[in-house]
Structures are given as C-alpha cells and as structure tokens.
Write a structure and sequence with these properties.
- The complex is a heterodimer of chains A (180) and B (405).
- Chain A has 180 residues and is mainly α.
- In chain A, 72% of the residues lie in helices and 0% in strands.
- In chain A, helix 2 packs antiparallel against helix 3.
- Chain B has a domain of 265 residues.
- Chain B contains 14 helices and two strands.
- Chain B has a two-stranded antiparallel sheet.
- Classes of the chains: A mainly alpha (180), B mainly alpha (405).
- Chains A and B meet through helix 2 and helix 3 of A and helix 1, helix 5 and helix 6 of B.
Amino acid sequence: MELFVFVVAAAMILAGAIGVVVRSHPVHAALSLILTLFGVAVMFVAQEAHFLAAVQVIVYAGAIVVLFLFVIMLLGVDRTEDIKTEPFKVQRPLAVIVGLGVIGLVTAAVVASRDVVSSRGSGLVTPDMADPDSNIRQLSRSLFGDYVVAFEVTSILLVVAVVGTVLLTRRVKPVVKEAS
Amino acid sequence: MVGSASLLGLDPISIGNLMWAPLLIILMKVVVVFGVGLVATMLMVWFERKAIAGMNNRIGPNKAGPWGLLQTLADGTKLFFKEDLLPERADRFVFRLAPFLAFVPAFLVWSIIPLGGDFSNGKDGLVTWFGHTTRVQLADPPVGILLLLALSSIAVYGIMLAGWSSGSKYPLLGSVRASAQMVSYEAALGLSVATVILLAGTLSTSGIVGNQGNFVNWHVISTGVIPFVIFMIAATAEMNRPPFDLVEAEQELVGGFNTEYSGIRFGLFFLAEFMNTITMSGIIVTLFFGGPQGLFDIPGIPGAWEGTLWLIAKIVVFLYIYVWMRATLPRFRYDQLMNLGWKILIPASLGWFMLMAVLRLARDEDWNRGIVIAACIVVLLLCVGILSLANRVSKANREREGAMF
C-alpha cells in the first residue's frame, strides 16, 4: 500500500516538475506546478503529516499558484515564449553547473546518510488513531513555543515585503492644481 | 496496517485487515453518498426554481412530472444530447479539464459531512452495520474541516481555467473577477472556521459535531453568532451565489466564465454550483448548528436515523434561506464586494477569533473575568479606531489623487 502510494505520488511529482520546465506555455507550466504540489501533499499524507498536506494544498496550490496564474493572465504573457533568444549569455552554462552541483550534493547526502535512511526507525512520534489532532498539536507546540521568535520574525519579514510592494507600485503623482 | 488506515481516513471500519465486508460497506457508502448527492442536487434545482417562481408571482416548472419535479432530469438529458462546442481559440486540454475541476471538489465535500449517527448524551456517533462499527460519514480524515478549505481553493481553478481557456474576452473577465472574489473571501471563511475549531478543540467534523451536545452548546451560540454570520456571507461569496454572483453578471459579462461552454460541460458547472449550495449548507449545519444533533427526541425512530432526519431538516432551512436571498437581494457592485470582504469581514473575523482565544485562555487560567472583558473591549475599540482612521486616510488620498489605475 505504502509503496504503491509512493510510486504514484513520485510519478506525479516528477511529471509535474518536468512539465514546469518543458511546457513552453506559462499557464501549462503553472498547472504542472500544481501537479507537483499535489504529489508532495500525497507524500505528506503517506508520512502521516496530515496537517502539512492540508496546508500544502490550501496555501501553495490554493493561493500561491492562483496568484501566479493571475499575474500570467493579467499581464497577458499567456502566449508561447520564444526560448531561442537568450537575454543573458551566462545564464545557461551557469544553470547547467548549478543543476549538476545540486544533483551531486543530494546524491552525496543520500549516500552519506544511507544507514539512517535504510534502517527502519521507530523513534518518530507519529499521530495514532486515538488522537487525530496530535499532528496539529505537535506543530503548534514547536511553532508557537520553541521557535516563536523565528516565527514572529518571519511574519515581520512578510509585512515588510507587503509594505515594500505597495510602496514600489505607488507612483507619486505630480501635484495637480486644485480644480475649482 | 495503521498506516493504510490513516491513508483511508479516520474511520474505525478501516482499522485492521481490510476484509470483504468492510470494503463492501465503504463501497456502499461511496455509492450512496454519490447517488444522494446527485438526487439532492436535482431536487435543489427544482426547489430553487419553484420557490423563486413563487416569490416572483409565477408558476415555475410544472410540466415534467408531478409539480414539475422531473424538470431538472429533462434539462439534464437535453444537455447530454446537445452538441458540445469547442471554441476555435480554446486551449483544448484545459478547456476540457476545467468543468471537472469545478465538479469534483463540490462532490468531495460531501465526504466529510456527518450525515447521521447518534451524538446525543456524549455518544460519539458511531453506528454498527453488519457487525462492523463505522460512522455515517464517508471519511473522517484527521485534517477534517481543513479539507473543506483545501477543496474550495481547488474549486477556484475550475472557474479560473474555464474562463481563461475559452480564449475569449468576457469569460476571461468573468473568471478573473470570480477567482479574485473567491480568494479574497477564503480568508474570512478560514478565520471563522478557526473560531469553531478553537472551541471544539479538534479538526475532525465528527468531533466538532460531538462538541455541540445541547442547544446552548451549538457553536452558533457559543461562538457568539458573529463567526456564523461571517461564514454565511463568505460562503455565499465563495459559491458565487446572489448577491455575490458577479461571476455571471449577465448584464455585464454575457454569461461569465461559462459563456463558451455548452452541452454536458456546461451541465457540470451548473451541477457543481447547486451541489456547492447543498454541501455548504451541510457544512454550516455541521459547524454551527450541531449537525445531526436534534433539539428533542423524535419518538419511535432509532437514534442514528433521527440524526439524519434532523440534518436534512436543518439543511433544507439553509437552502431556503439561500433561495430567499437570491430572490430578495440585488447584486453587489465590485468595489462594494471587495470593501466588504477586505475591510469588514476579514478584520471582524480576525478580531473575533482573538477575542474568543483570550476568553478561552482567561477561563483556563482562571483570570478575573471583569478585567479581561474590559481589556478586550478597550483593545477592540482601539483596533476599530485605527482601522477606520486608516480607511479614512486612504479614502481621502484616493479622492485627492484620483484612481491609481
């Protein structure tokens, strides 16, 4: 059962990820991103992180990608991009190097921690059937207890970003003479 | 097998080895919920047309079947056999996908509504069918009511992509309006749900119902009415029903996001809309009005069936209210809609949520009730003052500089 879920979800994630890169149409790319996010949500459920799965769908699929689509539709860039021309010459070689580097690092990390991954751990506290809310309880304990300062600083960061965006989009209009 | 049980949702029937009988019961529940959903939608369409006709001094559907009951069936059959047009400039795949994105979430919400069971006197609503203990509810996932928020955020895609993929102007305008409206009101919706979760102390819908033992414990009263009002308004906006039906404002937008749709694809959107009305009423009843909990004991009917009867009665009341609102209220203007959502509903629901949290904390910590309430009133007044000051300043700025766009 778990293997089956893993294979299906992994296929969803990979297909979505490839779709984001390969599809030349921005809207299709955004839709592929949703597929990936859903796959990740399924993975969360399989790992018994139900709350994270719900938040993944509500926040990422439900709000962030909707905003992506909004921008794509409102700015009218919903036509096929020409990927032949390249604005920055260094971009592509740099992307190849960074991509290979990330693959190398992830492989190294997996190889280095093989013992930890392959051994079946029993130390993880998973929510049991008797208490379905233990998930959200654990999360809120660490979020609003142990890491409350980091959490609040992050929220300040978000507010700063919002205020900054409003300021940037607000053109200061030249003062028009009062029309009588 | 615990892992697979929690994958299948928190239903006691799925614990242990899945044998034939539990599988059949689950399958039966799926089929029954699907069937009841479809029939209820059919009746809802008839009910709405008939009730509005009555309010408008008309007769309404009266030809197909007794009292016109089969009118929806006739319309549905017609839609099935109608030619399915695909606009030339449409994005073929997305155009075909969009109706299902609207339809499937509408159906899935059914699965988390407790449809019956005996919750009276602290019983947990479990029933025994064929020697197996289960709930009268398709699934009781640990995320519970959050599934509603997740599904309503998926439903946005149906409308948004339908409008965009049609490749024409009016549907695009309609869908951009609709998704802006739905995303805006989702915040207020979520915050008023959060107040209920705070009181119930659990996400699961059956737990929320179980928490509303007596009439006084119904969340509509114990959360102080405000979250219910906010939820009701936000849910109406979320479903794009009048007075928030700017999505299909036919005087401005031809038909809104579904202008280019015909045949059964249009039928799916139509079905989803009415299905949403019923499921949202069900959710309102579950969250605020005790779900299957009755006001009194109906004699001669076993407990579990009684719950179903009460649930149906309560849902019908809300369906009537929705029809009534449609017949009574004129459509909002777009700026009014956004002002209501962002400047009134979201601050109000946030403030009320904080208030409930403080009162809960004060009760748990045994603080002096008078001081806490006085402090709450002072803080709330301060917040309202600052907010209205900010609104006034921005309004003055807008009038001085003219519109930004």
